[in-house]
DNA sequence: TTCCCCCGTCGAAGCGCTTCGACGTCCTGT
DNA sequence: ACAGGACGTCGAAGCGCTTCGACGGGGGAA
């Protein structure tokens, strides 16, 4: 293994000079830097990560905790993860993968052993057991998602309330007067998943503001549940012409159910969804939707973390504005 | 930060004794170990990962390279990743996440900087550009998937040839005499994805062996392509009664297409697939299938790596036996 | 009883890097 | 012309841990 002293000898300088040439933490003459860089290339020098971490107390590694639980859309998680890795690499950092399973212990372990400099936690619950730990840890962290009490933490996420509003406003703008939200399974609300509740709030608020008649309907996964909800809507809200779906696996079955009941989409019913673009795009009728900007959120989380590691103050809450993509599933009210 | 010398002082022993008590690399009296452990607990000692890595030249971190490319089923990748992390934790190791995007450079970087002790590479192509690098690296690695020339490497995967055979044998056992394989998109074969070709080999070999009439049909993703293949099969192989599908996204559309053309599954046509259980299970007709044992493969890869790190010799090729789950889509030939 | 060897422990020497203080040298302002 | 800086470099002191050789004491074999 070639080490910094080898490079130093080869370039005719001291090890500290090599270090400074590499880090830029002190001025080094152009000529010396050239020589050092040439030696590094020639010898194929690679600084030893462990030694570096020990001396600098910086590992240049971030921890990423990914969720495993049911009900979360795996491809989106993957997009997050990939964008986090990509963004981290831009800042010369690597990413250590932790599973939710390990819980708080995993976080504490990688933080306490100085394996990582900072942490990103996905899928935060409203009353997440890891929150006290994250507050107490001596390393910076960023949450993807918002807990009930985000004070003292740094959080980033799509602005789900605004997403809910945006869908309603889009429908209202098309002249729809009676709208319904088909939401996540009941247990998601019970569990206290913040974003689901925030969608409901945004949906309801916007409907009230726009003077629409609105209702909210949690829905299990699967075609059977979709059919039940469709029947219920048809029966109890016959004037319904606008539907917002916040429940990926149910989107297609729900549209199928409507059609099976003689309601054409978008002819009789305009449908908009909050879901990944791929889900919206590949449905039988491409669905007007607000996408989860996974890549943006991931990159944003890394940027926040880097700023914190740099000692900068960052906002506690970062809400990404939703963007609505109009597709074939929404039309003006007949 | 509490360090090993603090523990040593607190327990009234030398730092080396603490180290040995922790690692077990030298005998330590029961009584001393007790005392050391008590001190560790009391002080909340956590060994510094970087220092440990530097002194022992072992980071206890594995690299995992995940693919990003189109055409691979994301949930399966995630299952791999999670099972790798879980298995690694059982061996007191952590997992560093790398994306395919970084290519060979990423592998070289984490290996050369001693950030990781060993590497797991997913989605290996038949003529993968990273193979020479992996062979040259001074750290052990395990490939998930088989390249054309696996000599000198350690590989693990589902035995796709056997999976193809198993599907055929299942159909043959039910009395079917004319079978077809609906495979991956043509580019997958062109790209040289080993497992796709191995399925074809197994399928053809078993059909020949069983005296069946067989044919192979690559197929693009999407319902349109599925319909085309269905029509082609109906037209050119009217006696067809058994189909093997090795193409997740096409499975459902294909069945839909058959039904739309008046062919009932399994009444007229028995269908079996090589795909994740969730895909097979959630289809309109639950499909008899051979699953990708992602968790097994991931855990197996980690085990191989640990053995290699321990200095043991391991087989170059590990093929996991396919298991066929019979569901509603296959019945005896009428 | 004597010799050996093993058990359990210690001290010290690094592992490879960063960083701090120090020290020339050369430039600039007055 | 000279003090005061800024610049560029060096040496040495660690960062916290593992590991190697050494050593005293006790037990078994002869």
TrEMBL record, chains A, B:
PANTHER family from the UniProt entry: LACI-RELATED TRANSCRIPTIONAL REPRESSOR (PTHR30146), LACTOSE OPERON REPRESSOR (PTHR30146:SF153)
Pfam families xrefs: LacI, Peripla_BP_3
Protein name: LacI family transcriptional regulator
GO molecular function, one term: DNA-binding transcription factor activity
InterPro entries in alphabetical order: HTH_LacI, LacI/GalR-like_sensor, Lambda_DNA-bd_dom_sf, Peripla_BP_I
CDD domains (UniProt xref): HTH_LacI (cd01392)
Keywords on record: DNA-binding, Transcription, Transcription regulation
Domain HTH lacI-type: 2-56
